[in-house]
Amino acid sequence: MNLQDIVKKIAPLDQEWIAKAGTRTAQLVMPTRALGRLHEISERLCSIQETLQPSIKRKAILIMAGDHGIVAEGVSAYPQEVTGAMVQTFLAGGAGINAIARHVAADVYVVDMGIIAELDGVDSDRLIVHKIAPGTANFARGPAMSRKEAEQSILFGFQEASRLYQSGVEILGTGDMGIGNTTPSAAIGAVICGTDLEKMVGHGTGVDAEGLARKRDAVVRGIAANSPNPADGLDVLAKVGGFEIGAIAGCVLSGGFHRRPVVIDGFISTAGALIAQRLCPWVTDYLFAGHCSEESGHRAMLEHLKLDPILDLGMRLGEGTGGALAMSIMQGAVCVFKEVMTFAEAGVADKE
After folding, report:
1. pLDDT beyond 90 at 269
2. Distance separating alpha carbons of residues 143 and 140, to the nearest angstrom
3. Which residues form the catalytic set?
4. What does the alpha-carbon distance between residue 253 and residue 251 come to, in Å, rounded to a whole number?
5. Whole-number pLDDT of residue 352
6. What is the pLDDT of residue 121?
């Protein structure tokens, strides 16, 4: 299946299901919409799954990993070797995402989309290898990848998310790993959202003032050198993106294609969502923003997508942690919708 076929089969949500779910919410034994956004979350899940018995018990997190040539411009506080080391930590179950995923009963899978490290000797059924190349090119000096590679990254992400949905996963969270990847994410955000670089380019993993200046300069030069077309998501991804960002875009498209919810994490995942939204505007109907990152440009990205974050806890780890934690809130919303009695069932007088 090609990208055009995928996009053609994604349709907006049926608003009648939102209305049906809203009718039940109005009958719950509590003051009208007393649990605030929990009602909106549960009603949208009903519409996505087209049922008044929504279920998100089977959860999974897909961590997309890739390295970046832009690191050569001094944009990261950490060396590139950390990408491969952290992938192995994910597979060993010892990272932040693993702890939170255990808390919310979500399975964690890692996809090598293009890291420098070779993981062929790693024996794990949670590792999937789709290495397009050992890292992208330095987009400050030319395109990060070819248009063909950009499409390939999206299709690999779509493929792996679809495999999980077809195996019975009911809700998917997106995660990322890639030293330097806040830089291409900022470039994507600046191009698509039209946001000022002072706001969009932040400290990432903790660069100092000089590092931040180098990072902003690299993004400025990269956009100038490549002239990405903001109306063409594939062009933006190819010129200033990353393999793992493309794969996240594919996950988002898969949610729309299979009518399943996708919870995006922070800055990098939202860059992937921006690419997906440029390819198919309807995908945001299936998206939930897990949290608002501390990374300076993330809120502008979410505003562009018209998504309200479920959590705002000052998190900036990535890995899928914010999205995974938000699944717990979403599960609570589902329990309220399905388990709270109506006024009639409880024998309680409704308001006049």
Report:
1. yes
2. 8
3. 319
4. 5
5. 66
6. 74
Domain boundaries, the chain: 3-53+336-346, 59-334
Q: Exposed, middle or buried, 57 (CB in 10 Å: 0-12/13-18/19+)?
A: exposed
Q: What is 59-334's CATH topology? A: Rossmann fold (3.40.50)
3-state secondary structure of 279: helix
| DSSP letter (8 states) at residue 351 | P
Residues 111-125: tens digit of each pLDDT: 999 999 998 778 789
Percent of the chain with pLDDT over 70: 100
DSSP-based three-state secondary structure for 352: coil
Sheet holding 171-177, edge to edge: 127-129, 106-114, 59-66, 171-177, 262-264, 287-289
Tokens 């191009």 map to which residue? 191
Identify the three-state secondary structure at position 341: coil
Token pair listed for 228 = 């990405």
The sign one gets for the Cα dihedral 133, 283, 271, 147 is: positive
* Record: fold of 3-53+336-346: 1.10.1610
Amino acid identity for residue 166 in this structure? Q
Q: What is the pLDDT of residues 36-48, one digit of tens each?
A: 999 999 999 999 9
Q: Which two tokens stand for residue 322?
A: 């914010």
Task: Report the distance separating Cα 338 and Cα 324, nearest Å.
Answer: 22
Measured CA to CA, the distance from residue 155 to residue 149 in angstroms comes to 10
